[in-house]
């Protein structure tokens, strides 16, 4: 049996460098925190419940965005910590998973408040509420632009496309993006409902829009939960990449009897192979035959004769 020789090498895989999403997330955290502080101060000063409520709402998202920011810093500062077997790449997915749970809770609160207002309508100060909603839309619109996250074409895109790489795998950035997008969506729906209520007397539209927004936010949350959970539970990597590996290695006399490919960070994978052959070569011989995939950063290869299979 032949295996990789033991060598001293790091398992940082670039996690010790600042990711593009870190600076953008920090800017959005500051922007959200400043807006939150201004709205709460104005609400207390002028006795505006609308401003105060929106300020407290912004506080919840500032907390969620701060978790994303903390994850970036923690992953970078602990990238060389030997207690992490394959580096700190999964901190990114853990933060994304946490953000998805917070999104789901946010959706539940939206539904609860909307149903409560349908059953017990309240008097709406339309002009004041419109000012708050427009202010929120501007702030969150700027935040969405700053984060600039490119969405996947479908829920399984990351897992079925072998060459997807980089920011599409940044689950932490995706969670932060969804939080500001949820806020922007809430503001758009609120503005539409307030205008309809002010000019057409459709007061019921405001809580109904809240339920519609909650449904959309729930869909985003579910998709992010599924994607991040697969990474955290070491779900097998992209099928296309696994097929490329088999096609590159297997011949009539060489068989891959065990293949494990799993994501260890944003867009990066670890590979463990067991190769059975009647004419064994050193592991490096097979490593050089692997497809030149930018995300394949760590490989362990075991070579065995047929009777050891």
Spell out the key features of this protein.
5 strands, Alpha-Beta Plaits, elongated, 4-stranded mixed β-sheet, Alpha-lytic protease prodomain-like, alpha+beta, 309 residues, 9 helices
Write the layout of secondary structure elements.
Layout: E1 2-3, H1 20-46, H2 49-77, E2 85-88, H3 89-119, H4 126-147, H5 157-160, H6 171-200, H7 205-232, H8 239-249, E3 254-265, E4 268-277, H9 283-287, E5 296-304
Parallel strand pairs: 4-5
Antiparallel strand pairs: 1-5, 3-4
**What is the CATH top level name of the largest domain?**
Mainly Alpha
Proportion of beta-strand residues = 5-15%
Mean pLDDT: 85
Structural class: alpha+beta
CATH topology of the largest domain: the name is Alpha-lytic protease prodomain-like
Shape: elongated
Corresponding CATH architecture of the largest domain: Up-down Bundle
Q: Tell me about the largest β-sheet.
A: 4 strands, mixed
Rg (CA only): 25 Å
**Helix residue percentage:** 55-70%
List unreliable stretches of 5+ residues.
150-167
Strand tally is 5
How do the strands of the widest beta sheet line up side by side?
Answer: 1-5-4-3
Q: Spell out the CATH superfamily of the largest domain.
A: Cation efflux protein transmembrane domain
Give me the strand/helix succession: EHHEHHHHHHEEHE
Number of domains: 2
């Amino acid at each position: 049996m032949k295996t990789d020789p033991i060598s001293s090498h790091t398992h940082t895989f670039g996690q010790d460098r600042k990711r593009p999403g870190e600076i953008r997330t920090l800017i959005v955290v500051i922007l959200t925190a400043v807006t939150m502080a201004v709205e709460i101060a104005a609400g207390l000063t002028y006795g505006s419940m609308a401003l105060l409520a929106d300020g407290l709402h912004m506080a919840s998202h500032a907390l969620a965005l701060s978790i994303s920011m903390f994850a970036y810093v923690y992953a970078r500062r602990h990238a060389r910590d030997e207690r992490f077997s394959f580096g700190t790449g999964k901190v990114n997915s853990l933060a994304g998973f946490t953000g998805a749970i917070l999104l789901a809770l946010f959706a539940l609160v939206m539904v609860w408040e909307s149903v409560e207002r349908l059953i017990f309508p309240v008097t709406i100060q339309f002009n004041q509420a419109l000012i708050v909603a427009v202010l929120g839309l501007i702030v969150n619109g700027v935040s969405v632009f700053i984060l600039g996250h490119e969405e996947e074409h479908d829920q399984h895109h990351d897992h079925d496309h072998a060459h997807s790489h980089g920011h599409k795998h940044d689950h932490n950035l995706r969670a932060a993006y969804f939080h500001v997008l949820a806020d922007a969506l809430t503001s758009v729906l609120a503005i539409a409902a307030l205008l309809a209520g002010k000019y057409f007397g459709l007061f019921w539209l405001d809580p109904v829009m809240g339920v519609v927004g909650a449904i959309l936010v729930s869909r985003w949350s579910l998709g992010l939960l599924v994607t991040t959970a697969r990474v955290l539970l070491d779900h097998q990597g992209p099928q296309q990449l696994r097929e490329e590996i088999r096609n590159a290695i297997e011949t009539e006399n060489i068989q891959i009897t065990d293949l494990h490919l799993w994501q260890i960070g944003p867009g990066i994978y670890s590979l463990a192979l067991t190769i059975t052959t009647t004419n064994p070569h050193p592991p490096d011989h097979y490593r050089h035959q692997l497809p030149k995939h930018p995300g394949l950063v760590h490989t362990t290869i075991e070579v065995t004769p047929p009777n050891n299979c």
